[in-house]
Write a structure and sequence with these properties.
single chain, 82 residues, alpha+beta, two-stranded antiparallel ribbon, 2 helices
Length: 82
């Protein structure tokens, strides 16, 4: 996983954390469309990186977590299997 961080760092406003074989990516800047685009770009990079090394991502272990802070102070959060 040593060569993965520089690839993810090329995506503006994307953050990542890698611990062992667990990869977490997140972003909070921009519109919903910008966020979706960045997360999809990161997912594509991770999948390609894994495939090139004979590995694969596990859909059973993958989650997509949305957290949205509203102006009125109410917060919404939900997690979805991928």
């Amino acid at each position: 996983m040593l060569k993965l961080p520089p690839l993810l760092e090329c995506i503006p406003c994307l953050h990542h954390s890698i611990y062992g074989d667990n990869i977490t990516v997140w972003t909070a800047a921009g519109s919903d469309t910008d966020i979706q685009r960045r997360l999809q770009q990161a997912a594509n990079i991770i999948a390609t990186y894994a495939h090139e090394r004979g590995l694969s991502c596990s859909p059973q272990k993958s989650k997509l977590f949305f957290y949205h802070s509203r102006k009125c102070g109410r917060r919404d959060a939900c997690a979805h299997d991928i």
